[in-house]
Amino acid sequence: MDKNQALHAYIKEDLLNQIKLGTYKVGDRIPTELELCKDFNVSRTTVRTALKQLTMEGYLVRKQGNGTFVAEQKVKQTLSHTVERYSDQIAVQGKKAEISLVSIQVIPATESLKQVLNVSIDDPIQCIERIRKANGEPTQFEISYIPWSLAPGITQQHAESSLYETLKKVYHLQIAKTTEHVEIIFPDERVAQHLQYKEGLPCFYIETVAEDINGNVFEYSRSYFRGDKTNFVISRNYLMDE
């Protein structure tokens, strides 16, 4: 153990390594608090701190009266260049994807939407709220803003499939570039409710601006991801000097 590492951090790291290596598989019950206390020769408070952190991070799930079990693997989503649909990204992980529409409404462009979408104040903007699920559990709540002038009349059928594919095939808007800003936030009551997530727990927050091949912005979105159900993969290719 690193001499600068707290005992609970060491226990957490040890358990996490065993989960990642497959020593503890999805659905396996891990040793009890008392057993872990004996194994690591530490207090119950120290063990509970480690288990609490692993539970909050989505690696363990505690079942009242039954013990603590290894949770299902988190949904992986790619932040680097990809044209794969959400359903395709989830399917390769052995999970069933679902997109549920919360609402579609037309709103007047605000000052902030004017700036990002390059429209005029009060121009009609379609506001589309959706929930993405994996195996029936919410992982993402997304709010998309698309100018009516570019893609009028987006329907529920469009929204509950691949929105980018719809924009390409129906409205001839080909995505060429996205700019994404990522941070950690604490969701408000409404967002937490849509995610079926405890208010006060952190989640990933991503703002995305999508452009076509001519550099025209056609979508701005705000997405909230459950921190215990999602992680992200970033893949970069670097050209080597000859």
List strands and helices in order, with pairings.
Blueprint: H1 7-21, H2 33-40, H3 44-56, E1 60-63, E2 67-70, E3 75-78, H4 86-91, E4 97-108, H5 111-117, E5 124-134, E6 137-147, H6 156-159, H7 163-169, E7 177-185, H8 189-195, E8 203-211, E9 217-226, E10 230-233
Parallel strand pairs: 3-10
Antiparallel strand pairs: 1-2, 4-5, 5-6, 6-9, 7-8, 8-9
Helix pairs in contact: 1-3, 2-3
How does this model look, in words?
The protein has about 240 residues and is of the alpha+beta class. The protein has two domains: about 5-70, Orthogonal Bundle (Arc Repressor Mutant, subunit A), CATH 1.10.10.10; about 75-235, Chorismate lyase. It has helices spanning about 5-20, 35-40, 45-55, 85-90, 110-115, 155-160, 165-170, 190-195, and strands at about 60-65, 65-70, 75-80, 95-110, 125-135, 135-145, 175-185, 205-210, 215-225, 230-235. The protein has a six-stranded antiparallel sheet with strand order 4-5-6-9-8-7. Strands 1-2 form a two-stranded antiparallel ribbon. It has a two-stranded parallel ribbon with strand order 3-10. Helix 1 (about 5-20) crosses helix 3 and helix 2 crosses helix 3 (about 45-55). The two termini are about 40 Å apart.
